[in-house]
C-alpha cells in the first residue's frame, strides 16, 4: 500500500471525533476509497461500504430514501449482518454527491448515533454548493489530493531519514550534497512523468514501463473529461471545452483562460458568464485555479481579480502525457528544443495546493507576471515565487520589478530552479526545484513545518 500522509488525518478523526462525520473531497482516482477502506477495516470490526454512484446507475436502492428510517431499512437490507453498535460499526458512503438528499440527512444520522459514518465524493464541492441545507455542525470537510512529491519519494523507496535530512538542509537554507542532489533531481523528473495518481504509480513501480503508465494516464484523463461532460445539459459541452483547453492555454505566454477561445461564436460573453463551468472544474478537483493579483496586499484573497484566471491540471503526469506522450527524453534529458516551463509551473502549483496554499499569481500590465504569490504568514505579507526550468533562471524582470516596489512590503522571494546551489541575491532566495515539497501553509498538518523560531514559546 502506498504511504499517504492523509491516512493519519482520517485515522485521528475517526478516533477523536465521534460526534462528527468526515467528508473527504477530491477528484476521482486519487485513492480516497482505497484509503478509507483500509483504515475502516483496520479500526472497526464491522465495516460497510456503499458506492452510491454505482447504486444510482444500477439498482437505485437508496434513490427514494426520504428519512433516516428509510435509510436504516435499506442499509439493513444490503448489509444487515455487517452492522453492530456505533463504536464497532463504520458505514462508508462513497460518492455521496450522487444523492444530495443524503448530504442533508447526515446531520440526523449523526444525531441518532446508530453507527459511525464517513463519506467521500469526487464532486462534493459542487454538490454542497447546490445543497440548500448543509449540516455544517455535524460534518467536517477535508480535501485529498494526488500523491505529492514527498509521498512519491517514499513510494520509490526513499527512506524517511533521507527526506528528514533534506528537510533540515531546506530549513537551514543549505544545498544537498552533489550525490543526493542528483538523486533528488532524477526522482523529481521521474515524478514529472509519472505524477501522483496511485494506480499510475503502482503500475510504474511494478513494470517501469512508460507505455503502460501513459495508457492509464490517458484513460484517467478521458474519465475526467467524461465526468465533465455529464454535469448537465446546459453546461456540459462548455465545461469539457474549458477542460480540454487547459494544456494549450498553459503553453501560451500568458497561460490564463481566454473567454474568446471557449465559444468563438459567442463573442458577447464575459468571464462571469462561465462562473458555473469554472466552479465545476475546480470543485470537482480535476483542475487547479490560480487567481490574479495586481495589488499584493496580505491576505491575498482580499485582492483577487475574478476575471483573470489560470487553470492547471490536477496531476502533472497527465500533463506530460498530453504534451510528450512516451518521449521521456523531453524531460529526462533536458532537450534544448523543449521548454519545460509549463511542466515545472504545474508541479509547483500541485505541490502548493496540496500543502494548503490558496494559489495566486501577480499580473500587472506594466511590470509583467510572477508565477505564484502565496500568503507569507510569518511576515504578514506576500511571498512571490518564480519557477525556472532552464539555465536562464536569473532572468526574471517581473519579479525584480515586483521587489523594487516598496509599497508591496514584500520581505523575500523564491526562485525554484534545477541547480543545487542555495543562495540569496537581492532579496531573492534561489533553491533547487525539489525543495518546493517543504513549503507548507499555516494550516499544514505538521506544525514544525510552519512555526518560525521568532514565535513566543507559548505558541510552540
Short description:
It is built from 18 helices and 13 strands.
Model description:
The protein is of the alpha/beta class. It has 18 helices and 13 strands. Strands 7-6-8-9-10-11-13-12 form an eight-stranded mixed beta sheet. Strands 2-3-4-1-5 form a five-stranded parallel beta sheet, with helices on both faces. A hairpin with a 2-residue loop joins β12 and β13. α11 (210-229) packs across α12 (236-251). Residues 444-460 have low confidence and may be disordered.
What fraction of the residues are assigned to beta strands by DSSP?
15-25%
* Envelope shape: globular
N/C terminus separation: 34 Å
Unreliable runs: 444-460
Task: Kindly report the spatial arrangement of strands forming the biggest sheet.
Answer: 7-6-8-9-10-11-13-12
Q: Enumerate how many helices there are, as a single number.
A: 18
Helices and strands in order, then pairings?
Blueprint: H1 6-16, E1 21-25, H2 32-43, E2 46-51, H3 52-57, H4 68-79, E3 89-94, H5 100-112, E4 116-121, H6 124-129, E5 139-143, H7 149-155, H8 160-171, H9 178-194, H10 198-207, H11 210-229, H12 236-251, H13 259-262, H14 275-283, E6 287-293, E7 304-313, H15 316-324, H16 329-332, H17 341-354, E8 360-364, E9 368-376, E10 381-387, H18 397-404, E11 413-417, E12 423-425, E13 428-432
Parallel strand pairs: 1-4, 1-5, 2-3, 3-4, 6-8, 10-11, 11-13
Antiparallel strand pairs: 6-7, 8-9, 9-10, 12-13
Helix pairs in contact: 9-15, 10-11, 11-12, 11-15, 12-14
What are the defining features of this structure?
460 residues; alpha/beta; 8-stranded mixed β-sheet; 18 helices; disordered C terminus
Amino acid at each position: 500500500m502506498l504511504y499517504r500522509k492523509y491516512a493519519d488525518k482520517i485515522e485521528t478523526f475517526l478516533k477523536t471525533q465521534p460526534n462528527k462525520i468526515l467528508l473527504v473531497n477530491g477528484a476521482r482516482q486519487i485513492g480516497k476509497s482505497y484509503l478509507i477502506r483500509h483504515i475502516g477495516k483496520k479500526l472497526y470490526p464491522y465495516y460497510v461500504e456503499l458506492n452510491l454512484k454505482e447504486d444510482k446507475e444500477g439498482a437505485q436502492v437508496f434513490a427514494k430514501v426520504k428519512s433516516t428510517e428509510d435509510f436504516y431499512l435499506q442499509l439493513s437490507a444490503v448489509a444487515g449482518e455487517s452492522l453492530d453498535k456505533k463504536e464497532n460499526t463504520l458505514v462508508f458512503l462513497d460518492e455521496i454527491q450522487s444523492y444530495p438528499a443524503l448530504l442533508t440527512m447526515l446531520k440526523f444520522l449523526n444525531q441518532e448515533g446508530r453507527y459511525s459514518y464517513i463519506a467521500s465524493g469526487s464532486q462534493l464541492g459542487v454538490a454542497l454548493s447546490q445543497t440548500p441545507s448543509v449540516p455544517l455542525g455535524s460534518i467536517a470537510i477535508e480535501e485529498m489530493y494526488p500523491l505529492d512529491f514527498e509521498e512519491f519519494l517514499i513510494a520509490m523507496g526513499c527512506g524517511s531519514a533521507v527526506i528528514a535530512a533534506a528537510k533540515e538542509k531546506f530549513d537551514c537554507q543549505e544545498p544537498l550534497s552533489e550525490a543526493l542532489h542528483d538523486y533528488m533531481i532524477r526522482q523529481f523528473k521521474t515524478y514529472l512523468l509519472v505524477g501522483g495518481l496511485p494506480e499510475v504509480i503502482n503500475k510504474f513501480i511494478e513494470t517501469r514501463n512508460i507505455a503502460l503508465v501513459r495508457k492509464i494516464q490517458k484513460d484517467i484523463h478521458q474519465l475526467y473529461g467524461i465526468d465533465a461532460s455529464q454535469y448537465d445539459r446546459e453546461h456540459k459541452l462548455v465545461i469539457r471545452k474549458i477542460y480540454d483547453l487547459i494544456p494549450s492555454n498553459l503553453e501560451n505566454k500568458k497561460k490564463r483562460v481566454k473567454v474568446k477561445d471557449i465559444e468563438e461564436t459567442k463573442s458577447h460573453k464575459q468571464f462571469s458568464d462561465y462562473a458555473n463551468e469554472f466552479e465545476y472544474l475546480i470543485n470537482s478537483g480535476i483542475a487547479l485555479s490560480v487567481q490574479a493579483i495586481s495589488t499584493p496586499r496580505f491576505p491575498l484573497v482580499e485582492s483577487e481579480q475574478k476575471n483573470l484566471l489560470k487553470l492547471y491540471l490536477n496531476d502533472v503526469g497527465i500533463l506530460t502525457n498530453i504534451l510528450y506522450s512516451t518521449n521521456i527524453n523531453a524531460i529526462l534529458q533536458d532537450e534544448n528544443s523543449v521548454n519545460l516551463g509549463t511542466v515545472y509551473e504545474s508541479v509547483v502549483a500541485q505541490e502548493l495546493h496540496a500543502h494548503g496554499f490558496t494559489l495566486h499569481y501577480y499580473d500587472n500590465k506594466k511590470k509583467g507576471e510572477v508565477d505564484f504569490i502565496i500568503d507569507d504568514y510569518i511576515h504578514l505579507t506576500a511571498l512571490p515565487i518564480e519557477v525556472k526550468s532552464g539555465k536562464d533562471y536569473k532572468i526574471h524582470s517581473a519579479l525584480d520589478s515586483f521587489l523594487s516596489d516598496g509599497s508591496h512590503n514584500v520581505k523575500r522571494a523564491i526562485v525554484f530552479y534545477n541547480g543545487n546551489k542555495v543562495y540569496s541575491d537581492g532579496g531573492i532566495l534561489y533553491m533547487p526545484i525539489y525543495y518546493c515539497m517543504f513549503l507548507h501553509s499555516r494550516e499544514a498538518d505538521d506544525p514544525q513545518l510552519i512555526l518560525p523560531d521568532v514565535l513566543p514559546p507559548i505558541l510552540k
